[in-house]
Task: structure prediction
Amino acid sequence: MTRDSTQLPSALRARLRDAPLWEFALTLYGREGVEAACLMLQDEAGIDVCELLWYCWLHHHGLACDASLEPAHRWQRRVTVPLRRLRRDLKPEAQESESVAALRRTLQQAELQAERETLSCLERLALESDRLTVLPSPAPCLAEHLATRLQVQKKPHLSALRTLESQLDPP
Result:
């Protein structure tokens, strides 16, 4: 039997299972300029960093997924965003009080764990979705693909997307 459309999705899913999103996200996020680009897109354009990293992970594997991200968005709204808001709100007080600084570090760890749960949700979504597709060949430019997908138009935001693209290893 040839590698037709009925066989390809399971092979793609197996490839994704072998390259977990969490490890990919940590590696990409740690590369030069990526953290700053992600945080700028989050703070200025309202783009979820976990979603952004998920799109990069898929693109890295030559894939796209059009499934609804509502479960991940709901988790982010209910858990991650409130933790982030508390952590940021405590920053001035943490500079003057070690006990508040300790609480802020605890919130930072909780926020990271909440983001890990978001990434886990997004990874499951890709692995279980019937909306996982192969990107055309040649694959579209990541920055252009994300700009269209995330409706980004401002020059600084487009530049941030190009930073992500420049730090993404070829598949």
Residues 1-6 have pLDDT under 50 and may be disordered. The chain has nine helices and two strands. The two ends are 26 Å apart (CA to CA). Strands lie at 63-65, 132-134.
